[in-house]
Design brief:
This protein is mainly beta. It has helices spanning about 30-35, 95-100, and strands spanning about 1-15, 15-20, 25-30, 45-50, 55-60, 70, 85-95, 105-110, 115-120. About 10% of the residues lie in helices and about 50% in strands.
Length: about 120
Amino acid sequence: MLVNVCLAKLHRATVTSAGLHYVGSITIDGTLLEAAGLVPGQMVQITNVSNAVLWRTYIVKGKKGKGDIVLNGPPARLFHKGDKVIILGEAWVEAAEAAKMSPTVVFLDDKNRITGVKEGWRPA
């Protein structure tokens, strides 16, 4: 049996832009993706700390070092520049592996620079 787990978390990222007339997705700085172990196309949940809205979409890799967190398409109506968000990276793993796992947590400052990383266990 496979279970859906939180593989990684970007904690309190700041939305840098929101583009309503884009196909959809979330663009995340490539440096942040690497630190969290997330990949383009992976499904994520984004919670807006400002209004408690939860959105689920896939990742588009942004340029490294730019600090971009961009909500594209419909979520642009619910997420705005400057909002704080929690981004949870999902993964499907075997139940036995899930029992051993803990997510990697990447802590960010107001400019989406990494201030700390708590490494978690990842599936083999």
